[in-house]
Amino acid sequence: MKKYDVTGIGNALVDIEFKVTNEFLFENRVEKGLMTLVDETRQNELMKVINTAEAKKQCGGSAANTVIAVSQFGGQSYYCCKVANDELGYFYLEDLKNSGVDNSLEGKEPEEGITGKCLVMVTGDSERTMNTFLGITQTFSVNDLNEWAIRDSKYLFIEGYLITSPNGKEAMMQAKRIAEAAGTKVALTFSDPSMVKYFREGFDDVIGYSVDLLFANEEEAMLFTGKDNILEAREEMKKSAKHFVITQGKNGAMIFDGDTFIDIEPYKTVAIDSNGAGDMFAGAFLYGITNGHSYASSGKLASMASSKIVSQFGPRLKWHEAKEILARLNP
User: Fold this and answer.
1) For the whole model, what pTM was predicted?
2) For residue 11, which of 58, 57, 64, 76 has the smallest C-alpha distance?
């Protein structure tokens, strides 16, 4: 029996989320709908013109949101990450602990540096635009992996954003090797279309022969496979993953369980903020398949959870909301 359901590796970023207008994005030269990596100077420019008093702050990063979701549904999760010994770094670790997630920095003093942060700008059409300064998490490497936690997990979950740096890519590949040697299954998320667009060959290196589970949205799936329609893309993805999930926004999701495709119906909702919907889908799905649920049942749970996320502000459920969703799944 393994201790953890999921061990995640990824960027540790303090998410600062706030509402903006399309005019704000245009006036401040921010490309809408994408995650853009910036330096500290550029991010500070934006910090000066936003209303930080109304911004919501919490520990984040794509994989962090996912392992927190696993914990909220009742699973056991662990996170390999890197923060600095500054105010935001200690805030991050405390928030992660309060979310029920063990982490690789427990009992250690963080290094000198600047903790990364992500400005999450949400427009009235519920679309998210992210402006990210990675800070010290950009130096995340094999030295920040906890081999014991990876070995003692049912699944390793790898965040696609790590592909942007050579040390991050090396950590992805080493973590996958550790997992495979220990019989830990490997899940990978592409994280963002821009990652697939600019780092396609890097993902080939990380995936190697295949991964056990791959998460992608429709755009990412088509970019990765080079196909211009989702039906051809999903057939091509069988070459890279034993199982996979393609999320389709308001149209739900499709799951390949290794034999057949399962269509997951969407749950009716009023979209307010799409930030974290994919992370939540992955977390709920991983909780399901590591806790006795079928792929279809896990997809249903993930669809319910992500529909709840887009109906509110922020990428995280409240604890009671997770329990209510589980109760709906198992009445």
Assistant:
1) 0.92
2) 64
